[in-house]
């Protein structure tokens, strides 16, 4: 455990210096269709880290979490998106998004074993923030349906990437790598958090 924290001690000051507000949520709206939706999650490091973390956490918790968590996230994210489209006010969106990387990353670093229902609630709660941010941008899209399809596919691929990383835990060295990536995700979340506050 100490070795993991020592590896990332140098990264925190660097992340604090280069931190910016969450990148996937400019507040300027979106345009285009499928490709715009597909590329949007990949352009925001805050979204990438959270999606990958969900996949890694699912792999760490084992079956059925390995597929339940990556299904829960987009389903609840859609609900958050509807709230955003409706324009219902919701405070601390960027803070919630940043905290998703911090908390999920720490769960991975610490290799916490938790009941599936608890993990699903945590993942779902963070999904609302991610969905809301994108839903609030959605009404300005030229083709909201095509955009949404591209967005969901891209998000699913990020979950699969996380599951692939999480599957490294089958080997002793892989556990260290997966937990180290969790540490990077948590530190990135601290950077996002400083930009959001």
TrEMBL record:
InterPro entries: HupE_UreJ. Residues 1-24 form the signal peptide. The chain crosses the membrane at residues 42-61, 66-86, 92-111, 116-133, 145-169, 176-196. It comes from the Bacteria. Keywords: Membrane, Signal, Transmembrane, Transmembrane helix. The keyword Transmembrane helix applies. This is Ni/Fe hydrogenase.
């Amino acid at each position: 455990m100490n070795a993991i924290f020592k590896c990332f001690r140098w990264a925190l000051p660097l992340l604090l210096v280069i931190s910016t507000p969450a990148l996937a949520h400019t507040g300027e709206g979106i345009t285009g269709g499928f490709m715009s939706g597909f590329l949007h999650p990949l352009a925001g490091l805050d979204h990438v880290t959270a999606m990958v973390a969900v996949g890694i956490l699912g792999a760490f918790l084992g079956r059925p979490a390995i597929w339940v968590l990556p299904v829960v996230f987009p389903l609840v994210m859609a609900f958050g998106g509807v709230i955003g489209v409706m324009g219902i006010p919701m405070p601390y969106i960027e803070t919630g998004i940043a905290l998703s990387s911090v908390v999920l990353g720490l769960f991975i670093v610490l290799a916490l074993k938790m009941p599936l229902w608890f993990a699903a609630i945590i993942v779902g709660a963070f999904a609302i923030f991610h969905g809301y941010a994108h839903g609030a941008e959605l009404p300005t899209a030229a083709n909201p349906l095509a955009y949404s399809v591209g967005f969901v596919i891209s998000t699913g691929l990020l979950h699969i990437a996380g599951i692939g990383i999480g599957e490294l835990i089958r080997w002793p060295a892989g556990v260290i790598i997966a937990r180290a990536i969790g540490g990077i995700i948590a530190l990135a979340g601290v950077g996002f958090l400083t930009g959001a506050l």
